Here is the input.
Amino acid sequence: MLLKHADRLLAVATRLGQLDTARGMILELAVCGRLLDTTELRADGRQLTSAPGSDFPHHWTMATLDELGETKPRNNAPDSSICGFLPMASIPAQYGAPMTPETRPWGAIRKGYTHVADGDVVLAKITPCFENGKSGVVKALPGGIGAGTTELHVFRADSNRVLPEYVALVLKTPSFIRRGIPLMTGSAGQKRVPGSYFGSTPIPLPPLAEQKRIVAKVDELMALCDRLEAQLQERDARSAELSKAALAKFSDEPTIENLEYLFHPSFDVSTVGLRKSILKLALRGKSVPSSDGDEAASVTFPKLAATTRNDCDDRFPDHWLQVPLGACGEWLGGGTPSKDRADYWVGDMPWVSPKDMKLPRISDSQDHISSAAVRGSSVRLVPRGSVLMVVRGMILARAFPVALSMREVTINQDMKALVPYYPSCSEFILLALSAMEDEVLAMVERSSHGTCKLKTEALLQVAVPIPPLAEQRRIVAKVEELMALVDQLEAQLAASEEAGTKLLDALVAELAPSN
Here is the structure.
């Protein structure tokens, strides 16, 4: 069985979905003599200790593959013999996975390829195959011999001191691969680990009987990892179905209780998708109930009511107005003051550009300009409460950033500012545009020189729903409440995952050999 804490390694790795880390540690434990209990090593129960300054038991030795066999073996067979051929695609990266040789006549592959035979150990020497751990023991070749890609190092044991399966185990350890990477030579994409590293690197060598027990234990634990991985995949599939059902329940009734239900450990709901769902539900009037006591939007906002669209979108409640974005307020463009005027760039006026659009509310920026820059250039002051949006730039390939200005600012030429006719609508317009991100991004067109932009005329025609003012405020408050809870629950999940990762790192550090 595993030594102290190693069973926890598998448990934590399983919970975090990091079984590859556990597989690597199993291999490392195997080649430093820490995988088996001492009772498995010595029938007389004698306590085994590591030799001074070493990472393996004192009765082990060190040897190179050049000392244990051939690293450039050759085959002899009639050209008509049916043999096996190993392309790189047939060499497995996963421990224990079988190779899949092709069938070829020996005369067609004996020249220009690397000779191999059943029982040989092969290692991919070219990047990225070496880094990926492509290696293994050759088995079940047609005719027992064959050849393979020239990008292989080959070891053929010619003594009874080493088991090929043990050598293959050593070659797959993360430490063996890690130490070989700096030694690779060649141009980018064609780097190869040298034969000297493969053949002349000393490896820990237990007695042959112990090698067999180590290989058997590794096979057992790797099989356990495979079963755990299959269980994880089955759990993830069930989780996806449960998540879908939980999200549907939240969509039907977006309460805090149902939102907390979405964060059940059995589910795997994307918080990005969840935030989008909260916004879209709010925009459809599903997050809070309407009230007959609310003053009608047409009464509160007569200027917007005069421009409401006749072809109303049935996604929105009937008592809401639907106003073209261009009719919601005054539109301001941006610009860049002259870079030649140093005095323009020494001031306290925020100059907002797309890189500042990371929060829903903006009161400062990375760059600032002076009042002289405002007076001496086309840059205009954008009043507090304006809705800022990015309308040009590569960021539009994946997002439509919008934000509310919390103080007077200026903006650059890649942005637009909407100054609402009714400042009380600013918060809801911000929410609406955030919820309509996918719809707005559908209008993005790539220009001939590779940038992204929104056509102004198309943007101005986007229909924005305007509920009664009291309902707007209830919706905004509910969305903020739900988003804050998502933040809180997400932080709890992140803290749990971080704690698990730290535990896994600590276990790896405790179990890993010092080299």
